[in-house]
């Protein structure tokens, strides 16, 4: 299984600012994903981070609000832009090899509180 | 939207088997059944997955009915550390357009 780390593990931010979350994997993976988990809720897929191309966003999520980078096969970033208190959530990255009925592994998450 | 239905919560006595049901009556022939769990404040943890046959690993067993419209995750000897939210998910492989879509899951409480 892949070992995934995220930075920061938690942060408290002021509204109107932006935060970039990093996701690092210990091996090369084809697919990386970003999820959001709002307080007391289940996980919601934000986007798929594609290496060498634009991220693919799910309905309700836009690039201007959640820009994503994927510079190589082991690293991705998610930026939460122009934050408001509604963005307070846990943000999780996950990875998958993408070659079949593979397992998707999750990072520990980044807890974000926006004041 | 999630394609599965799970009970909101369940209790289990420590040391006993925990049987978590999941209904997925609209599952298609090439969709897999996956189970994950999320212990409080942590990222989801993969447990097991299957297509048609029953599966077993070091964590759990997955029993899929013959018509594939439902399944049961079995934790054979539940411990307090198994207290978590358990998610049943059906999906295609990613290279066939599949994604992990999480429902609300079952909150399992293992009690002494």
Tell me what the structure shows:
Chain A is mainly β. Chain A is built from no helices and 11 strands. The N and C termini of chain A lie far apart (36 Å). Helices cover 0% and strands 45% of the residues of chain B. Chain B is built from no helices and 9 strands. The interface between A and B is medium-sized, with 25 and 20 residues.
What attributes does this structure have?
heterodimer; A: 115 residues; mainly beta; 7-stranded mixed sheet; 11 strands; B: 5-stranded mixed sheet; 4-stranded antiparallel sheet
What oligomeric state do these chains adopt?
A: heterodimer
Strand fraction of chain B equals 35-45%
How much is the average pLDDT of chain B?
A: 93
Q: How confident overall, as mean pLDDT of chain A?
A: 92
List the uncertain runs of chain A.
none
The profile of the biggest β sheet of chain B is: 5 strands, mixed
- Strand line-up in the sheet with most strands of chain B: 1-9-8-3-4
Which range does the strand content of chain A fall in? over 45%
Number of strands of chain A: 11
Report the structural category of chain A: mainly beta
Radius of gyration of chain B: 13 Å
Proportion of helical residues of chain B: under 10%
Q: Indicate the radius of gyration of chain A in whole angstroms.
A: 13 Å
Biggest sheet details of chain A: 7 strands, mixed
Helix amount of chain A, in percent?
under 10%
> By helix and strand content of chain B, what is the structural category?
mainly beta
What is the CA–CA distance across the termini of chain B? 36 Å
Unreliable stretches of chain B, pLDDT < 50, 5 or more residues? none
Order of helices and strands of chain A: EEEEEEEEEEE
């Amino acid at each position: 299984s892949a070992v995934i780390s995220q930075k920061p593990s938690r942060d408290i931010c002021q509204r109107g600012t932006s935060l970039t979350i990093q996701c690092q994997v210990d091996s090369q993976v084809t697919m990386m994903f970003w999820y959001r988990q709002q307080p007391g809720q289940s996980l919601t897929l934000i986007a798929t981070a594609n290496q060498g191309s634009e991220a693919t966003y799910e309905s309700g999520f836009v690039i201007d609000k959640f820009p994503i980078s994927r510079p190589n096969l082991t690293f991705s970033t998610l930026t939460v832009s122009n934050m408001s208190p509604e963005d307070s959530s846990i943000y999780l990255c996950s990875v998958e090899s993408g070659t079949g009925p593979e397992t998707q592994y999750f990072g520990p998450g980044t807890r974000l509180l926006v004041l | 939207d999630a394609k599965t239905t799970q009970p909101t919560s369940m209790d289990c006595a420590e040391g006993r088997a925990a049987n978590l049901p999941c209904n997925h009556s609209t599952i298609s022939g090439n969709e897999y059944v996956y189970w994950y769990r999320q212990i409080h404040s942590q990222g989801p943890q993969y447990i097991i997955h299957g297509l048609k046959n029953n599966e077993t690993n070091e964590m759990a067993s997955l029993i899929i009915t013959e018509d594939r419209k439902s399944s049961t995750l079995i934790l054979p000897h539940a411990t307090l550390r198994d207290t978590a939210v358990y998610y049943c998910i059906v999906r295609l492989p990613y290279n066939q357009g599949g994604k992990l879509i999480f429902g609300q899951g079952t909150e399992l409480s293992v009690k002494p």
